[in-house]
Structure formats: C-alpha cells, structure tokens
Amino acid sequence: MPTLRRLATFATVGAATTIGYAVIAEGLAFFGLRPVLASLIAYAICGCGSYLGHKRFTFASMGLHSAEAPRFFVATIAGLFVALTMPLLFAQFFGPSPYFAILATCFLVPIVSFVTSARFVFRPAA
Q1: Predicted confidence (pLDDT) per residue in 49-73, tens digit
Q2: Contact 104/86 with Cβ under 8 angstroms?
Q3: For the residues of the chain, what is the DSSP string, one character each?
Q4: Is the sign of the CA dihedral 59, 62, 63, 64 positive or negative?
Q5: How far apart are CA 60 and CA 110, in angstroms?
Q6: By CB distance 3.0 to 4.6 Å, which of 19, 92, 109, 116 could disulfide with 75?
C-alpha cells in the first residue's frame, strides 16, 4: 500500500477509535461511572478496536495476534509515555503554558504511533 494511502487509512482508523472512545467514555460517565474509570474502560475497548483496525486495514497484516497484540500494547504504552512527558518537557523549557505541549503531543504521538506500528508492531516477516 502506498505510504500516503496508508497514512490516510491510519488517520481514519485513529479518528474512528477516538470518536468511539469519546462516545463510550461519555456514555459510561453518564450512567454513573467515575470519569477516570469510564475513560480507562473506553480506552481499553477502543485500544482493541484500534489494534484490529490497523492490523486489518492500515497494515493488512497477516501476522499472528500472539506476536502483534503484545507489540501493539508496548507501542501504545510508548505513545502514552510521549503524551505524559511532553507537558513536563515543554514546561521545563517553555514555561507552564500547556498550549505548546498539547500541540506538540497532538503532532508527535500519531507520528510515534505510526512509525512503531509500521516498524515494530506490524512489520513484515523477515
């Protein structure tokens, strides 16, 4: 699959799972779950959807779930690490304003996620 098409598919799967996360988290919170628990449950559900969507559509991987699912989990944790450390780094260098950190996170996390998915999670068999 050409890179531009793969990026568009990656963005589409990401947008769909982000919307799904918002709907599920809001729904669970509406029905009484605490927001942190609602978010955690929604994130786990949509993480599975993201994995399956990227496996099937973005990377069309024929690899085994037993190999790729744990790698996807590690890549997701790496993205989370970037999202958590960006505000700390930007506060250190640019002051406490969250705007640059949030913008940088929104830009950097999808790049990290795409690269780790392509090179680590769904890499073609050697």
Answers
A1: 999 999 999 999 999 999 999 999 9
A2: yes
A3: --HHHHHHHHHHHHHHHHHHHHHHHHHHHHTT--HHHHHHHHHHHHHHHHHHHIIIIIS---S-HHHHHHHHHHHHHHHHHHHHHHHHHHHHHH-S-HHHHHHHHHHHHHHHHHHHIIIIISPPP-
A4: positive
A5: 19
A6: 116
Structure-block tokens of residue 57: 């559509």
Spatial contact of 24 and 43, defined as CB atoms under 8 Å apart? no
pLDDT computed for residue 126 by the predictor: 63
52 vs 46, 49, 99, 102, CA distance in Å? Answer: 10, 5, 32, 27
- What residues contact residue 109 under an 8 Å CB cut-off, 6+ apart? 79, 82, 83
CA distance 59 to 121: 10
Amino acid (1-letter code) at residue 95: G
